[in-house]
Structures are given as structure tokens and as C-alpha cells.
């Protein structure tokens, strides 16, 4: 019985870390007293301890304590014993690399599918899909595989950006890159704009937030989904 929040970002413009999600998270993590934080994707320049402290401060607003997975001797046991799990953003390549290095990817998938409430933001959302091939991050390390959790049967492109009208930028748009992905891959991709998230209730996946999301399927025109829509494939 999966219970997941898959968010495009941890912080929207003009607000504090996770602030826009806290009302949702309070309900999502009902009864949870302590949460396991996975800081492996850590943003540049901060330690696991510093990153965990940021998450800890945010969750204190809803009376949930936070411990980092790096604080435990055995990462796999920490995942197995967690009441709830949050994987933060940063670099998806490094996140996936560390999940494999610490041998917790399969365990994480198992506990999520057995009902442990999960939150992912940015990189922590990218890993929820079939693979990490739609991340926007630079390949700063080389993980053993691009295969990720597969808790949803499509991929996430977090922080999805629309083309800016009138822009003279000559580089590829996100839409172009996703279409390039579909030359070689069948997996659908959801462009998830900042401030939007997915609510996963077992096999039902709903779009939440105020913005639309853009769904890409191979050999089909992209479509806009509105908040409240049920994603079906």
C-alpha cells in the first residue's frame, strides 16, 4: 500500500524550506514521531549533518523529529525500521550512486511498497520513477545503474520549465530534451512544475498543487494535466 508525496521542489520562491507542503505533510505523516532523512543528494557545499539540520528545522513545525540515514551504523536497517522516509533534493547522480553504494535502493523500494510513508523532493522525486534518465542534473559521478525505484510507472522531470516567449536562448528546451529521450525510450515522462506534487495512494496517482503538469508519451503530442487529475497509463 504505497503512500507517497512526490514533489517537484522543496522550496518555492518566497517561502521557507518545505513551507508550501507542510499542511499536506502533516496529514501525510499522521502519527509519525520520527522520520528518516536521506541526504545523499546534498546540495553543493553542505555536509550531510547540515542538510539534515535543515530538514529537522522544517519538520519541527509539524512536531516530527528527523534523523539522517548517515547517523546509523547500518543504512539498510535504518530504512527497514523507519516510520517514514524523506529523500531531499540535490544531484540525482550522486543520490543514486550512494543508494547503490550503501545497498539500500531495493530495501527502500520494498518498504515504500509495503506502506512506509515517503516524501521525495527534486532528486528524491526523480528516483521514484522507472529510471533517472530525465533528471536535469550534471553527471558529476557515475552510478552503477540508472535504474531507480520504479514505484511509479513513468519518469519525473522535476523543476519543469516552459519556453520563455521572446527569449533569444538557442539551447534546447525541456520539451526538446524529453522528446529526444523518447527517440530511444518508451517510458512516459511527467514535467512537474515547481509548486506541484503527486500524491500516490497505492496505484492511484493524483496531481496536486495550483499548477498544471505536462505529460509526454512517445509518438504523441504532450498534454496538460490539471490539479486533481488521476494519472493512468
TrEMBL record:
Gene3D superfamilies: 3.40.50.880. GO terms for molecular function: serine-type peptidase activity. GO terms for biological process: proteolysis. Signal peptide: none annotated. Keywords: Hydrolase, Protease, Serine protease. The keyword Chaperone does not apply. The keyword Nucleotide-binding does not apply. Transmembrane segments: none annotated. It comes from the Bacteria. Belongs to the peptidase S51 family. This is Dipeptidase E. It comes from Polaribacter butkevichii.
Amino acid at each position: 500500500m504505497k503512500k507517497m508525496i512526490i514533489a517537484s521542489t522543496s522550496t518555492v520562491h518566497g517561502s521557507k524550506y518545505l513551507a508550501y507542503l507542510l499542511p499536506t505533510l502533516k496529514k501525510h505523516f499522521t502519527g509519525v514521531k520520527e522520520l528518516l532523512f536521506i541526504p545523499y543528494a546534498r546540495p553543493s557545499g553542505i555536509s550531510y549533518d547540515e542538510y539534515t539540520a535543515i530538514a529537522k528545522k522544517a519538520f519541527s513545525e509539524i512536531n516530527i523529529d528527523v534523523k539522517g540515514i548517515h547517523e546509523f551504523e547500518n543504512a539498510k536497517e535504518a530504512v527497514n525500521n523507519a516510520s517514514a522516509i524523506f529523500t531531499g533534493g540535490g544531484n540525482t547522480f550522486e543520490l543514486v550512486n550512494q543508494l547503490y553504494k550503501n545497498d539500500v535502493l531495493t530495501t527502500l523500494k520494498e518498504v515504500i511498497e509495503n506502506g512506509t510513508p515517503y516524501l521525495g523532493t527534486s532528486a528524491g522525486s526523480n528516483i521514484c520513477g522507472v529510471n533517472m534518465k530525465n533528471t536535469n542534473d550534471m553527471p558529476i559521478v557515475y552510478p552503477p545503474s540508472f535504474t531507480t525505484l520504479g514505484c511509479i510507472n513513468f519518469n519525473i522531470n522535476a523543476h519543469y520549465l516552459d519556453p520563455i516567449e521572446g527569449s533569444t536562448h538557442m539551447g534546447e528546451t525541456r520539451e526538446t530534451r524529453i522528446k529526444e529521450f523518447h527517440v530511444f525510450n518508451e517510458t512516459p515522462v511527467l514535467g512537474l512544475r515547481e509548486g506541484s506534487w503527486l500524491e500516490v495512494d497505492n496505484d492511484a496517482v493524483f496531481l496536486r498543487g495550483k499548477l498544471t503538469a505536462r505529460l509526454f508519451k512517445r509518438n504523441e503530442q504532450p498534454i496538460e494535466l490539471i490539479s486533481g487529475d488521476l494519472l493512468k497509463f
